[in-house]
Amino acid sequence: MIIFPDVDLDRVPRHVACVMDGNGRWAEQRGLKRTDGHAAGEQALIDTVNAAVDLGVEWLTVYAFSTENWKRPLTEVRFLMKLNESILVRRIDELDDKAVRVRFLGRRDRRVPPGLARQMDRATARTAANRGLTLTFAFNYGGRAELVDAVKRMVADGVKASSINERQIRRYLYHPDMPDPDLCIRTSGEFRISNFLLWELAYSELVFTDVLWPDFGPNELVRAIVEFQQRDRRFGAVKASIPHGVPPAPGTRQLVG
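The structure assignment produced for this chain is given below.
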């Protein structure tokens, strides 16, 4: 277990979300193929998962493949499909040994290769009973698509307009039990969330770093959490008006001081 002296372990964010960006640029800077950058990002993912486990983070959600990523060159898309399948095959023992629960967030449509879909189902079933970190891969995911799908399911279930509120909408999201991220990190120097968890990030703290994803690891995660712990989270209220011990938004933690 790694020791993190700069982090207040009593105020670690419960849920960290991460936009893993910059693989292609990392490769281009080294005269490599873009796909080499994606392959290099695997170790950054595993290192970040291990650090999150040691820090006591309960949920980690990573943006693995967006609904917009299908627009990339076919060779790159095929590589990413094979890479994600390979990661699940090669890393599932390691994740399971650490009591990590693996889940997936997004649409499961015909574009997802059958072999990858089988490994996703296998990883989900194998780790379903684990009670450590919940590692969620946002795969074939888009925040707008999630909201569209939620509305469609509400209509199909005959939900009356008069009964629709935030709690009702949350019930129809892909994973209603997933708490809202306390912290969202985006790598590579980009300052946007790119259709990631649009509903869930409403009150998340956003941290942007210039570090490209393959160079991301425990030190960068710690820096983001330390910055998070320095923020004053008021959720639209003034500090005195927030009831002590009562989180003002679902799935978030109130920080005191």
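Interim note for the steering committee: Residues 248-257 have pLDDT under 50 and may be disordered. The CA atoms of residues 233 and 239 lie 8 Å apart.
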